[in-house]
Amino acid sequence: MLRLGFPVIGVTDLDRAAAFWSAALHLTVSGEWASDGWRTLAGPDGGRVLGLMRSVSPPEPRPRIHLDLLVDTTDEQRAEVERLLALGATDPGWEDYPAEPDFVVLADPDGNVFCVIDLSRAPSGG
């Protein structure tokens, strides 16, 4: 039977990406499947949550698939965006926000965009 696994992000620097995403999402780097081209990040229960794969292709500026990171309030969104920026995320200069967005678009240190969504204001239709 076919099952959905977990998201995988292509990155150029596995160690930098593992440090960023493990700190961002409070995950740990697992030894499972670790190699020169792969890192597995695990949740508190040890389950696989996110894969990082070495990639030579550049990140897509408007990816069709991306990560949505969820928070419950506007204050929490603001605090998490500040924390993620301090960890090495960047503001990619997203120009397609709706009038009253419930999300903030950031990019990881490799330039992969993701959203921080305030569930108290969702959905914005973005």
UniProtKB/TrEMBL annotation:
**PROSITE patterns reported in the protein's UniProt record:** VOC
Residue ranges constituting the VOC domain according to the UniProt record: 3-119
One Pfam annotation reads Glyoxalase_6
CDD domains named among the record's database cross-references: VOC
PANTHER family the record matches: CONSERVED PROTEIN, HYPOTHETICAL FUSION PROTEIN
Q: What is this protein called?
A: VOC family protein
Give the organism the record lists: Pseudonocardia nematodicida
